[in-house]
Amino acid sequence: MDDIIVKSSSHSYAITIGENVRFLVDNYVTKKYSSILVVSDKTVADLYANDIMNSLKGENTFLSIVPVGEQSKDIRLFYQLHTEAINHGLDRQSLIIALGGGVIGDLAGFVASTYMRGIDYIQLPTTILAHDSSVGGKVAINHELGKNLIGSFYPPKAVIYDTQTLQTLSEKEVRSGYAELIKEALIADGAFLNSLLETDLFSLSTKELEEHLRTGIKIKATIVEEDEKEAGNRKYLNLGHTLGHALETELGYGTITHGEAVAIGLLFSIHVSELMYATKLPYNPLLKWFKKNHYPLDLRNIDEKSLLNIMKSDKKIMNKMIQMVLLKDTGQPTIQELDDEDLHSYLKSFITKLSSE
Amino acid sequence: MDDIIVKSSSHSYAITIGENVRFLVDNYVTKKYSSILVVSDKTVADLYANDIMNSLKGENTFLSIVPVGEQSKDIRLFYQLHTEAINHGLDRQSLIIALGGGVIGDLAGFVASTYMRGIDYIQLPTTILAHDSSVGGKVAINHELGKNLIGSFYPPKAVIYDTQTLQTLSEKEVRSGYAELIKEALIADGAFLNSLLETDLFSLSTKELEEHLRTGIKIKATIVEEDEKEAGNRKYLNLGHTLGHALETELGYGTITHGEAVAIGLLFSIHVSELMYATKLPYNPLLKWFKKNHYPLDLRNIDEKSLLNIMKSDKKIMNKMIQMVLLKDTGQPTIQELDDEDLHSYLKSFITKLSSE
């Protein structure tokens, strides 16, 4: 099928989606690079690094492997990858390839954006979740005081998405990725939402998955083309993320996946939207679908105060008011500033509601 | 006098040069920022931080002070400034002001370029040398394996240059700054070069200095407007820096200033150019002027082999050949690739020549 083309302020890049495209990576590296550094994590490298290295088959091709998990998005590994790039002799005409999920894409992309003031990089996402982060050029590492606080807007030169690599994902990871697809549908496409809500994640066909990824990526691409630097509409993509990020931080990365936290965040956004705009949104169908697909939704033991504090330190805060993405309707996102008191009261009623269902 | 306007790919910004403009900083901060972090070093902060803070007089204005010297351009201070920015509550609508020389501009600019994926920053250079680094948006920190290896292209929102702050510079710092002015003259403007060679650095008037800065900055601005990301002509600005950087690394930062090292590098570039293009360049007038103004030029105890190795690890290396900026004539720079052997032989003959003069 056709590639999806994304126009960024500096260049256009293609997103290629297909089965087994990882064996053809060399075909998508159209420019002549002096050397290539593939960055991956242990799990993904064991499965796919050989396929990529064999496809590239150049003499100046190197592999850097970082530990699995969110804790790799930190300043020490960022610096270490710079060290490895220097030691391998990467210069300004070199390429970095990020082979893995969102953590690898964010980390390797941020290294590429700062290595000798920026070299090219290509995303090879290997999770469903990374359909979201691999497109649009947001790259970052975490600061100990908050997620994604150190980073750049730095679009990749290409995204190569091998759907076969998604076959090895755990159920948790499938759920995690689908939460971001649900988010994109809520923001932009009611028909897509209905189609997702008819999907059973435990019997997903490759064809269905590819179609969902393609639709989700198109929604994302349209938004980032309009607002690359997140001055306006791109903020809509943070739907569900105010509470989502806070839950990840509060519970600890690894306890709950990013998408699972976002799923709860989406329900919270809908809850607030319904109350604030006195409107009817698909809270119940979504809750039902999350439950059917075993999303963890239990917030009974959560520390509300602590969640609130984390939300207040989130970087989307403007002039000390919390900005939340809400929905006036499916496909009609909006930004709303909330003060602490309102946010607290919405969070209280949401936890009560969710716990009673 | 009129501001100099620089067009970058993302925005245009003004360079204001004048006596006492630091007291008017607030007038040049035209946008409403939610908070402002002024970054400076101990020496500069003691002299001028109060003037800036008083001009800004906002409630959300903070000051971060880092140690004096090149060693502050490192990953630890980079991270520490992020921590301070977070703790002060800086958000995406905040501003960083770099108050100091090139080290502060590079460090604070790089923090701004990566804080929450990039916030605005303004340069307030307080050295002559920083007329070069404050314009054009190259920001970076050093890696232990090389200078400026981690950074971004990230233009400031404004440059405010108070010539009064240059009155307190030491002779060494005046020499350092003038070497970059000589470089700009060699690249682009023979008449400017002649005027510089008539200047006595020990009896410099504010008027002369301001005129030199203005001419140097205009040369720099013209070049970076044509080639912001250093894909072509901007490389000419590295004239004298292949050997210059290597000398700084070999001798240790602090032993020789950046500009003093560049001065030797300029002589080396001219030496190579004269031999390679069988042309006559102003080697002797320049040498005479450097001597008259007490530039350190003694290379008799230098380790050639070590210098060569450092030059080979410089980031301007393309495909393992060293790229040097040379001159076909004053105002006619060119890029030449050199192999190790040629470079070694040129370096040998240069050191012999310089030591015999």
From TrEMBL, chains A, B:
Binds 1 divalent metal cation per subunit. Can use either Co(2+) or Zn(2+). It is found in: Cytoplasm. Residues 177-316 form the 3-dehydroquinate synthase C-terminal domain. GO terms for molecular function: 3-dehydroquinate synthase activity. It comes from the Bacteria. It catalyses: 7-phospho-2-dehydro-3-deoxy-D-arabino-heptonate = 3-dehydroquinate + phosphate. Keywords: Amino-acid biosynthesis, Aromatic amino acid biosynthesis, Cobalt, Cytoplasm, Lyase, Metal-binding, NAD, Nucleotide-binding, Zinc. Its cofactor is Co(2+); Zn(2+); NAD(+). Residues 65-175 form the 3-dehydroquinate synthase N-terminal domain. Its main location: cytoplasm. Zn(2+) binds at residues 180, 241, 258. It holds the Pfam family DHQ_synthase. NAD(+) binds at residues 102-106, 126-127, 138, 147, 165-168. The keyword Isomerase does not apply. Its EC number is 4.2.3.4. CDD domains: DHQS. Pathway: Metabolic intermediate biosynthesis; chorismate biosynthesis; chorismate from D-erythrose 4-phosphate and phosphoenolpyruvate: step 2/7. Catalyzes the conversion of 3-deoxy-D-arabino-heptulosonate 7-phosphate (DAHP) to dehydroquinate (DHQ). Belongs to the sugar phosphate cyclases superfamily. Dehydroquinate synthase family. This is 3-dehydroquinate synthase. It comes from Virgibacillus tibetensis.
